Amino acid sequence: MFGRNVFGLAAIGFGICGFVWPDVNLWKEIDPFGNIPHAEILLYLTSALSIAGGVAIQWPRTAHAGALALAVFNLLFVLLWLPHYVQKPLAFDYVPAISEQVSMLCGALIVYGGRFTRIGYYGFGICVIFFALAQVVYLQYTASLVPTWIPPGQIFWTNATTLFFALAAIALLCGRFALLASRLLTAMVVGFGLLVWVPACVSHPQKLSNWTEIATNFGIAGAAWIVADYLATRQTSPNRTA
Description:
Elements: H1 2-20, H2 39-56, H3 60-87, H4 95-112, H5 116-137, H6 139-145, H7 154-174, H8 178-203, H9 208-236
Helix pairs in contact: 1-2, 1-9, 2-3, 3-4, 4-5, 4-9, 5-7, 6-7, 7-8, 8-9
């Protein structure tokens, strides 16, 4: 179950960012904290929760508790994004951020297990639909992130990865070639991190946004890997259900 290990490391990285950059004004995700006295204390607490969950999820004996902690952490961030969306319900502005956070929430739910496993699985599949839509809506921005040295061009890879997201979502939600799709999706998102966000962190290490983006990227990659691990386990289990 390497998926939960990657997922947990991403959560640890996100939590560390909270301690390195404790100024809540730098965190667009937690604008509501700005009106609370000593809001940095809440940032420290949520960061500690992320680190604790990320550490606990590494080992089978504590993975259940770690998954619960990370589910609570990601749910909190989903709720913090919602006021932004409510202010502009007809806009697509905050949907990508919410879907990213929900996808990681779903990864935590799958690890937590029980009745939440299938909720997490299908929830993650729905999030992948929104990943594809986000690349369509923000085509030029997405294209600008593609390294210029990769042939045949930025627009080509933006269109290709949008198609790959859409196909992965269909496969996951329909159950056809779902394991293959989840593995390819994991590889693609890991590729985003290695080609886009690792160089960004190296070239501009002082920017908080680069570090939160790479943590989010590998958090989503970890969630996709968790989905692949879940499907592989179900496929080999003699008592699996459809």
